[in-house]
Amino acid sequence: MTEAVAAPVVPAKGLRSNALGMVSSTVIGMSSTAPAYSIAATLGFIVLAGTGFKAAAFVLLSFVPVLFVAFAFRELNAAEPDCGTNFTWATRAFGSRVGWMTGWVVLVEQLLVMSSQSALTGRYTLLLFGLDDLANNRAVTTAIGCAWLLALCWLCYRGIEVSARAQWVLLGIELAVLAIFSVVALSRVYSGTAGPQATTPRWDWLWPNGVSVGTAVSAVLLAVFIYWGWESSLSVNEESADPRHAPGRAAILSTVLLVLNYLLVTVAALAFAGVGEHGIGLANEANAEDVLAGLGGAVFGTSGFGKVMGVLLIVSVLTSGAATSQATIMPAARTTLSMASHGALPKVFGRVHPKYQTPSVTTWAFGLVSLALYVLLALWSRNVLADSVDAVGLTIAIEFTVTALACVWVFRRTLLSSVRNFLLRGLLPFVGAVFFLAVLVLAAIAYAKPDAGETTVFGVGGVAVIGVVAILVGFPLMFAVQRACRDFFAGRRLTRGAVARDGQTIES
């Protein structure tokens, strides 16, 4: 590696340094995935795709390309720990316009996820208090969802330490309930008290033999996105006690802990409920949208303990939605802050609160735009809201593909310097990029089918339309800000083909 001319030094963003350890970063990464809700809302559909007991295999195998992409995030962060993450690294690799659009895609997926999680917290707050009828009232759930969103924005605004402590509590409740559910379910299976539908777990559930190609593709499209969110641990890198290394390690650890958690819950649910089409069977379409809610009464019974655990299952999904919302606001605000700090957005978005040392303008701007979008989608149609959530898959595939390719390109001249560099900066990220590029194409084809989602537009599936339109809106926005951000788009703020390290530009 050879040193070149020093790059323009971007002023410190004003975020609180040394505020987070690796454990807190890991908690943020795991919380962002909404473990309880993700597996509850996805497992039934994976089984319905035709996988049967092999659903566990696809939960496991989908983790592998995610881990490869996590390596890319870790390597790029070690070279340049900027809270803009994808935006910054894509700009380094492919230039200002690709970098700006990458930042936009990340913001789009976070906006769409916020709509989903606000709807979730609104509904489950009412279910928690036994108000099942009101939980189906769109106006009431929307109002409560908005209240949650504003409260979580306030938490993120008040400081990173406050946000991290809240994440510890929310994730702790969530994982504890999932662990109790899994242990009780498996104990009843092995003791023979689970019922005639139960099946003893087998090792071959973890290998996808005997599954058709079409079924495998459908299962992978469903399973791979339950891991999204772990990269939030890297968005708080500038607030970490070890910015270059701790966030990357936290990202890897998050993915490993997630796959272990998902496998435990998946095997427990499959073993206890079976894959039948009736009753509590996981192939029963009536249970697909939330398999844990359908299994709670059967696993825990109707005794006092059972009733308490039934409530705690609802609490776990509620805390899952709240934790994910909070952990989505933080990276969204920091991505926008970074874009402004590097001159890719107007300076006003680069303001940081002098006392709390959080992105003040971008936190509230993202929260209010999320609130407006959520209300618009909720009032427009519940079906449109559902399709907007599924459209997130397209943006995630783009984000992971671009970031993994950026890693390969930025480090291309050092790939052959060691076996480690070849594997962790080259081969594995490239395989991850190819995988998610294939997922992008397959998902776009699948979502474009008229019967793929809840809505259609001129014969095209609403999921594909929402996803593509949301991404394309970024192009006129980019051209609109280009005049005010000439230095960035001319490549004078973030130099292409280099990574910043200790104030110096180091050629890749």
Structure in words:
- It comes from Amycolatopsis halotolerans.
- It is found in: Cell membrane.
- This is APC family permease.
- It is a multi-pass membrane protein.
- The structure is a single chain.
- This protein is an all-alpha fold and 508 residues long.
- It has helices spanning 22-31, 35-51, 55-61, 63-79, 86-94, 96-128, 138-158, 160-191, 213-223, 232-235, 246-273, 291-300, 304-341, 360-380, 382-390, 392-410, 419-448, 462-472, 474-482, 486-489; strands spanning 456-457, 460-461, 498-501, 504-507.
- The strands form 2 sheets. It has a two-stranded antiparallel ribbon. Strands 3-4 form a two-stranded antiparallel sheet.
- A hairpin with a 2-residue loop joins strand 1 (456-457) and strand 2.
- Helix 5 (86-94) crosses helix 16 (392-410) and helix 8 packs antiparallel against helix 13 (304-341).
